[in-house]
Write a structure and sequence with these properties.
Shape: elongated
Strand content: under 5%
Number of strands: 0
Number of domains: 5
Radius of gyration: 44 Å
Length: 327
């Protein structure tokens, strides 16, 4: 019993002789040192490994301090003149330096606050864009609906006039002959006609694109963008003389600030060359026997014969006595 009591008293005395310490504080300090090198720089001048109570903490601190006290620099900072070159420079450094020895980290991965701010503002801007789009759509829809409601009478009158025009044209034209031609038409030729139409518009686009690059108006205009502008201009083909295709000049100005006065001549040149092509195509049919009409067989070489035949046909239709116009 006496020996056991003495052993307990000895252990109690040893505990009372222990210096004050905190294992949690040591762990917190080591965690800060391992995460941030600056923390090690601040305590390395006065803190020694033996100041730690736990032996394992002493070893960790000693190893960390020895690793930080290497010769030369342990980190480099590369400053760029342009921020948008960050990705290309990062890839260049990663490809030129061995990954096992160097770790390349761009600034965007370290700027957590910046990334969160950009994400927040991007969402806000997306919401604002959506609201603006809804406002524009509702405004246009309201304007169109009001225009239709306020002009119901005018629209009805216009439709009536249009129907009347169709009826009049049908009465004065050979509608039955058109129907017969449609019934006898070889519809197997339709794919060839469509292919020819596509080739025609493709050649016209090539001409438009050639003019742009010949006049050096193709700044920031790729071939795809040129094709989109040309296609958009086809919407105005229903205008008189197709002069509404000047819309292409307007779109070109919106794209690269090219003055309309410089690009509008391209549209005019297109119209002139297209009209010339139509004239050549029409002229190439002269001398072709018949052209689908028996009464024109053998004509085309002498314009007087063609005029006589056409006048004779109209005289027979309207009961007018035909007379020779040669004299």
């Amino acid at each position: 019993m006496a020996e056991a009591a003495a052993d307990i008293a000895r252990r109690a005395t040893e505990r009372l002789r222990l210096p004050p310490h905190s294992v949690e504080a040591e762990q917190s300090l080591l965690g800060a040192v391992l995460v941030n090198n600056e923390a090690l720089y601040r305590v390395s001048d006065f803190l020694e490994p033996q100041h730690f109570f736990e032996p394992i903490h002493q070893q960790i601190y000693d190893i960390a301090r020895s690793l930080m006290r290497v010769e030369g620099a342990t980190s480099w900072v590369v400053l760029l003149d342009r921020t948008d070159a960050t990705d290309s420079r990062t890839q260049a450094l990663r490809s030129s330096l061995p990954p096992a020895a160097y770790e390349i980290t761009p600034w965007s991965e370290l700027a957590d606050f910046y990334n969160k701010t950009v994400e927040l503002f991007s969402r806000q801007v997306s919401v604002v864009r959506l609201l603006i789009a809804l406002i524009v759509i509702l405004s246009i829809s309201n304007t169109l609906s009001m225009a239709v409601i306020e002009r119901t009478t005018e629209i009805g009158t216009s439709l009536a006039i249009g129907v009347a025009v169709v009826i009049v044209i049908s009465l004065f034209s050979d509608l039955r002959a058109v129907g017969n031609d449609l019934l006898t038409f070889d519809w197997r030729l339709l794919p060839l006609i469509l292919i020819g139409t596509v080739i025609n518009y493709w050649l016209r686009w090539l001409k438009w694109d050639y003019y742009l690059r010949y006049l050096r108006l193709d700044r920031n205009i790729s071939h795809a963008t040129s094709g989109l502008i040309f296609t958009a201009g086809l919407v105005m083909s229903v205008t008189p003389g197709k002069m509404g295709e000047v819309l292409k000049s307007f779109l070109l100005r919106q794209r690269n600030a090219t003055p309309i006065t410089r690009s509008a001549p391209i549209v005019l040149a297109e119209r002139i060359t297209l009209a010339s092509g139509h004239d050549l195509a029409a002229a190439s049919h002269r001398g072709i026997p018949g052209l689908g009409r028996p009464e024109l067989d053998g004509l085309g070489r002498d314009p007087h014969d063609l005029v006589d035949t056409v006048c004779a046909g109209h005289s027979a239709e309207f009961g007018v006595q035909h007379r020779d116009i040669h004299a």
